[in-house]
Amino acid sequence: MSSNNVILVTGGTGLVGQAIKHVIETEPEGSRFAKLPGEKWIFASSSEGDLRDPVQTRQLYEKYKPTHVIHLAALVGGLFKNMKYKLTFLRDNLLINDNVLEAAHESGTTKVISCLSTCYPLDENKIHTGPPHQSNFGYAHAKRMVDVQNHAYKEQFGHNFTSAIPTNVFGPHDNFDLEDSHVIPGLIHKCYLAKKNSTPFVVAGTGKPLRQFIFSRDLAKLFIWMLRSYDDVEPVILSVGEDEEVSIKEVADAIVNALDFKGDYTFDTTRADGQFRKPASNKKLLTLMNGFEFTPFTEALDLTAKWFLENYDTARTGAAGKKAAAQ
Ligand SMILES: NC(=O)c1ccc[n+]([C@@H]2O[C@H](COP(=O)([O-])OP(=O)(O)OC[C@H]3O[C@@H](n4cnc5c(N)ncnc54)[C@H](OP(=O)(O)O)[C@@H]3O)[C@@H](O)[C@H]2O)c1
């Protein structure tokens, strides 16, 4: 890559965007994930432009003239919000993705990496096989369409637009909202409140389902690798291996340890478990990268819990969290 590239990260204030910012700011010179001399990185928030609006999207491109875009901006939510607002998840994400790709096309941006999701059966060849899970079909269909658009832009215009498929991401700057978060930040917040208020720490479900979790700062490095070294339209799954699945009980145990919680700790088995497994293969990634060392799960979880404790006042904790903390 030449040294005067401008890389625009949409959704730059979110969990993944902030992790890329961290890696770009801290990775030592010479590392394959380091910032290159002269390179300019922009981490855009929604306040700089609502990407559902084509005019504001075009203005953002005119302002920064990006040569490369890592497109992370999306309406993202937990299970409850996805189930309740299916049309909003479908439309907002379709609009955001269409505007970001079309503005890149119009302004001659060389490369765009977008983000798909793991809401459907997975290896890289199965993105369009079978319907997505009913609970989030709005979000999942919008994500699938990005791959369709990438292929269409490539076939009609020869563009270098591609996509990444991260599995369950966690890390600093996550959304710790009690009612609308993913499992790790939700449980960290719950355990924090149980300790603070001397109440039991109750985990929904049996604790048996298994998931592949990826630390946001590892994921950030994988995005930087894709930016520099991956020029194919087909998506790549960015994940730890299928043999590194962790159960929800292991997650909860690690949180109890990280927060040094000594109170009552139980599983509410009357609550639904969700899918037992959602395995995703990282074979393609590891072959292309010639190996990658992931941060051990408990180390990444400790770091995330520590970040949450240190940044409680500014973290995304939601209205219910603030109320419970004030008890
Ligand atoms: N988290 C996961 O486990 C996971 C798994 C698979 C895929 N992904 C994908 O990874 C990407 C990043 O996810 P994340 O977890 O980092 O999300 P996040 O923390 O919720 O951040 C979302 C980002 O999108 C921006 N955004 C939302 N609506 C926007 C709009 N209308 N206009 C402009 N910007 C807007 C937000 O900006 P403001 O905060 O400034 O409003 C924020 O920077 C998303 O595409 C998501 O679908 C995430």
From TrEMBL:
Domain NAD-dependent epimerase/dehydratase, which positions? Answer: 7-241
Q: What is its EC number?
A: 1.1.1.271
Q: Set out the biological process GO terms recorded for this chain's protein.
A: 'de novo' GDP-L-fucose biosynthetic process
Q: Which InterPro entries match?
A: Epimerase_deHydtase, GDP_fucose/colitose_synth, NAD(P)-bd_dom_sf
Gene Ontology MF, one: GDP-L-fucose synthase activity
Which family is annotated? Belongs to the NAD(P)-dependent epimerase/dehydratase family. Fucose synthase subfamily.
Q: Can you name this protein?
A: GDP-L-fucose synthase
Origin species, per record, is Coprinellus micaceus (Glistening ink-cap mushroom)
